[in-house]
Amino acid sequence: MQRVLTRLSILLGLLSVLLGGVTVSAANAADPTYRVLNNATGGSLLPQGYGNSSADGIYMYAWNAAYTYGGDQWNFEGSYDGYLIRNTKTGKCLKPGGPYYGKTYLTQGTCNHTPEFQWTLEQRAGLYKLTNVSSRQVMTPYYGAGLNEVVVLEPDSNIAKVWWSIDRI
Question: Which residue segment(s) compose the domain that 152 sits in?
Fold first, then answer.
């Protein structure tokens, strides 16, 4: 039932984007909150510092969900070509960062409607592939082999590590 509600909420957000009238706003108590878990590792999407740093440019991790201290909670806000994904503790949105061993690390920055902050969601069997509108690359743990890996962007390989569950909290 929870996954059905999650899917319905995301679908309604997408419809809002298509119909217009969506603005960027700070997360508030009325916004649905989600946990984003990697399919291959089980790691929960978490900013460096457990959400206690609002600095731009910090790494994102696929961290052990038992030890995230509430820093792994996200809002999905409709935007022009997809969604802004905002951390509820930092108030910052996901975007591509800089080079990280041949890939691009995922980071956070002050939210705006530019393509680098926008993400599309492709659904399959209750899982989602999150693709950055600007880079056209997918979000994934670096190796996809275990917990606590840096999350990066890479070309879509369509393997297990590029799929995530988005669970309403």
Answer: 2-168
